[in-house]
Amino acid sequence: MTVSPDDAPWWTRAVVYQIYPRSFADSDGDGVGDLRGILEHVDHLADLGVDVVWLSPIYRSPQDDNGYDISDYDDVDPLFGSLADLDALIEALHARGIKLVMDLVVNHTSDEHPWFTASRSATDDPRRDWYWWRPARPGTVPGAPGAEPTNWRSFFSGPAWQYDEATGEYYLHLFSRKQPDLNWENPQVRQAVYAMMRRWLDRGVDGFRMDVINLVSKVTSLPDGVVGVDGLGDGSPYYTCGPRIHELLHEMHEEVFAGRSGQLLTVGETPGVTLADAVAFTDPARGEVDMVFAFEHVDLGRGPGGKFDPVPVRLTELKEVLGRWQAGLGEVGWNSLYWSNHDQPRVVSRWGDESPASAKALATLLHLHRGTPYVYQGEELGMTNAHFTAVEQYQDIEVVNYVAQVRALGLVDEAHLLAGLATTSRDNARTPVQWDAGPNAGFTSGEPWLTVNPNHVRINAAAQRQDETSVLAHYRRLIALRHDEPTVALGDFTMLLPEHEQVYAFTRRLGADLLVVAVNVGAEPVEVDLGVPVEGAEVVHATHPDAVAPGPGPLRLRGWEALVLRPRG
Ligand code: TEU
After folding, report:
1. Is the separation of the CB atoms in 462 and 348 below 8 Å?
2. Which of 73, 155, 214 most suits a substitution to test ligand 1, by most atoms within 8 Å of the C-beta?
3. What is the pLDDT of residues 78-110, one digit of tens each?
4. Count of helices and strands (H, E) across the chain
5. Are strands 513-520 and 503-510 parallel, antiparallel or unpaired?
6. 270 CA to middle of ligand 1, Å?
7. In whole angstroms, what is the distance from residue 131 CA to residue 360 CA?
């Protein structure tokens, strides 16, 4: 959006920090992180300077997908604490000027949610139509392989339909069979969701991160998809940004957010979203959401066999994607900026070499883009991938189901399988936060639910807190830079050197102010002509503490060096 610093929404200057509660900090020794654990570490967040915390789900849940399967939207799971603990957390964050955004998971519920238990009880139950129930494919035997109503594949392997003996029909589940999809065509479903959202806002939360919100509108005839090697079809064209998606999000906006203070934050998680749809979602004039999470840059490197069959990616491919999204959401709409979350591998393992230097360079690269940056817990410490060496170490349902499927189909050899999981599995981001060098990294006094990374003896918060050259201190400076420099928050973005395979460079301009950003995405030194004069420029921010104003000639960058420069005059 083209706005002046005076009337730009507050979140154009904000930085969000994501907490995955299961892995953040455990206060009671059961090996699983909890709300009291977060409370013990709120000063870590305040010191970092973040404006918002997005809390992954803490609602009552059978934990089939670590809380993304909710059985009661209005209560806290005892695993994480109580409503009183949550109120205390809201108060502690607000006291430090930090907002709390809750995860909103309403494409599906748990199969143990009372809405679903009613829905499955009888074909004439009033809640039957709250979910997607369909008879077997005509001419097949209900419950037999291939009798599913459509050929759709679930995100977690296998068919997206589960047969229910009691009523002889199938229900749709795009994720696990314990995550039945809600039927957003039914107005009662929508009103129940909106009422629940209003209750949370009334309780004091400051907005929502909306899980797979662009999947709620399906093509109601549910056509078959193109069949893959597993014999199942790709239904995504019929449920990604479906026919009514913009209408439904606008309705939600009117029913829940209109008339509330402009201090809220709404961000839609939107796998498969196109730039055109993202513009529509985030155009303030349309009243849908403030921003969305796009997936093109994190989906780079998918091989022919999908996410667990990764192929190398070039820096120029990353520039092409991020540059296109910067341009596309320049005039209208707004970007969210993220490297990592609980579903993605760690950025220092993916784009860096796991050194603190690479963590800092990549942080500067992302945070100097235009949009709202999201920091995923542990990223500010330079935490790395898990480096598990055995399939049994993985806990994620996506991995467990995938391994069972490829072994059954005999599709990959075990070494290839392990290498793929080690590169892209979601558990890479879910190992416990590394607070100190002690036992279990200070995460728990008990047995952690997922193996703590042994590198916590080197990479941990305690070692970095007082060290001005640490990754943590670097993140602190980057967050302050966004707060202090209107050009970082609101300046236009122009990519430089789109064909260069090692240097990622761009400019940001706001009125007469210009910033030039140059990042060496590699450990080897490099010399480069940016095409923009930077001789004698002010060093506004740098990865290396001894960085000085560039001299004449090409710009010299040391390994993993990033510079933010303000040319003189
Ligand atoms: O993720 C949805 C999503 O599309 C993913 O990033 C997903 O992890 C990936 O496609 C699997 O390959 C959201 C949540 O972030 C994720 O943790 C949940 O498992 C999922 O929705 C279902 O609620």
Report:
1. no
2. 155
3. 999 999 999 999 999 999 999 999 999 999 999
4. 16, 22
5. antiparallel
6. 10
7. 46
* Beta carbons of 164 and 183 less than 8 angstroms apart: no
Cα separation of 490 and 135, whole Å? 52
> d(Cα 486, Cα 513) in Å, to the nearest integer?
9
DSSP string, 210-259: ETTGGGS---TT----EE-TTS-EE-HHHHTT-TTHHHHHHHHIIIIITT
Candidates 175, 269, 302, 343: which one to mutate for ligand 1, based on the most atoms within 8 Å of Cβ? Answer: 343
Residues contacting ligand 1 via CB (< 6 Å): 65, 68, 105, 155, 175, 211-212, 269, 271, 307, 342-343, 398, 426
Q: Which of 77, 103, 148, 269 is catalytic?
A: 269
pLDDT at 409 (0 to 100)? 87
At CB < 8 A and 24+ separation, what contacts does 137-143 make?
142/168, 142/169, 142/170
DSSP 150: S
Select which of 64, 103, 211, 427 is catalytic: 211
DSSP collapsed to 3 states, 487-546:
HHHHCEEEEECCCCCCEEEEEEEECCEEEEEEEECCCCCEEECCCCCCCCCEEEEECCCC
> Which atom of ligand 1 sits closest to the CA of residue 174?
22
Q: Report the nearest-CA residue for atom 3 of ligand 1.
A: 271
Domains of the chain: 10-60+80-107+198-224+249-474 (3.20.20.80), 491-566 (2.60.40.1180)
Cβ atoms 213, 197 nearer than 8 A: no
Q: What are 122-147's pLDDT values in tens digits?
A: 999 999 999 999 999 999 999 999 99
What confidence tens digit (pLDDT) does each residue in 218-248 have? Answer: 999 999 999 998 999 999 999 999 999 999 9
For 468-510, how does the pLDDT look when each residue is reduced to its tens digit (9 = 90+)?
A: 999 999 999 999 999 999 999 999 999 999 999 999 999 999 9
Closest Cα partner for 240 from 283, 210, 270? 270
Q: Tell me the best of 111, 211, 336, 430 to mutate to test the pocket of ligand 1, counting ligand atoms within 8 Å of each CB and taking the most.
A: 211
Note if the pTM is more than 0.85.
yes
Query: In one letter, which amino acid is 70?
Result: I
Strand-pair category, 265-269 with 169-172: unpaired
Residue 493, phi then psi, degrees to nearest 5? -115, 130
